[in-house]
Design goal:
By secondary structure, the chain is an alpha/beta fold. It contains 4 helices and 8 strands.
Length: 192
Amino acid sequence: MTRFAMLILPLALIACSNPEATGRYLIETPTVAKTLPNRLGSVELREVSLPDYAAGQEVSWQTADGAVRSNPDQVWADAQPRAVTLALARQISGLSGATVIAEPWPLAEAPSRRLEVRVEQILARADGQFRLAGQYFVTPDLGGRGADVVRRFDISVPIGTQGEADPQDPALIAKAQAAALQVLAQQIAQLQ
């Protein structure tokens, strides 16, 4: 490679890059009022385990051929495991009044329980539904009282309204994901 080409190539790559073309999408769960009894007490929520395609930076969706695809110009505004964990903690606390805090536990008094959520699927499907499926576990803290709780969840919410449903629209995917997380938070708060 010539010296001229070595100087021009990086400049050409920089010129092609347009950071304004990249859309960053938030998981914006609505503020909720306490409507459920506090069945959890104080809970340390471990970072939510997500499948590889969902733990990455790009917003993913499923196409009609069953493939999971993404676009490097459509990314999440925050790391997905962190964003999902914080959204769940906020929603469960808001709905039930429980003290749910993402790990590591920052308070002097230890939590009475630990919550772990393992997501098997979190995907905008080609059929226009957003699916959130997996399992959650609630255990008493070391030396704590109470029984272990193990529950499966399988939640589907529509992506957009009937007139705007586009399973590849990242803004609609973000809204549907927030709605699915709110349903999961209700289930966990009620230990369903």
